[in-house]
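Lecture notes, unit on protein representations.

Consider one protein chain, 318 amino acids long.
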Amino acid sequence: MQILNGLQQRVCFGLVVCSVFIWASSAPANADDLPRKYTLQYKFLTAKNVIYSVENKSEVELQQGAAEQHVEHSELTDKHYQVISTDLQGNCVLELSIDRVQMSAAVDGGDSVTFDSQRGEKAPPEFEGVADKIGQPHVRVKVSPTGEVLSVQQLTQDHEQPLAVKDVVTAKNAGKLDVLVRLPDEPVSIGDVWKERFEDEIVVGEKLKKAVTIQRTYTLTAIDGHRATIQLDTSVITPIREPEQEAQLIQKTPSGTIVFDMERGLVLSRETSLDRKVVGFSGPKSFIRNITTRKERYVEAGGSGAIQQARDAKGVQR
């Protein structure tokens, strides 16, 4: 049963410190009594490719009156960023590329719509936007050693100009691209917190959009050798009172765990999840629920990404 209008389909399928000093007595604290602080910074090496594999799964349950719909989506992605240049301050220009993707979507347990970029087939309409970005740099970004986005350029390729700037994203809203995990500006101890805010947009009328502020909160929870474990929580700061607007943000607030290699200066893994439900997004007898898990891991030299690992598990030859 078809129950979705245009906006509802976008909601369904659309599916980035001050110090406090405590004195216990009039005598100054010894240095040995102070918690150890750790510096978390990226280390960018020119011409180096940093490769990641990503596994993403989501389910969307939708009800409008007596009508119900269930959508399942899965995605395996192999991607990398290439270090183009660095400056004396440690700032770096990166180009981001998607190397390969396998995607699948099914509605109400029916036949799955699938796409594998390596097969050379035309992408189904549901996946055309992703297919256009595969095998070429699609974003050029300048970042600081803490992962702060300084500038972003979206790239497009055509016959006349192979690598052209299509449009510029401001640093204010670049966080929604989620290019790199944001690291603290100052050294931190276990238990310390730092935050990142950015803007996104939701539709509030026929031709009207509303800016929404989203905040990522990071907490350093553990240190094991050179590995730092970071807890991530995401929340919407802008008050949202309309369920139809809240439904558009249903995928924007994941929580999870990040593991960062302090010696090599890169993220080793990032695992996030969310399970959210919005009631009344399309009338009093409606609801939408989204369940999403995302696992991203660094691929060591000579290793294989998520897609090849899945093929190996099925006994498919390279």
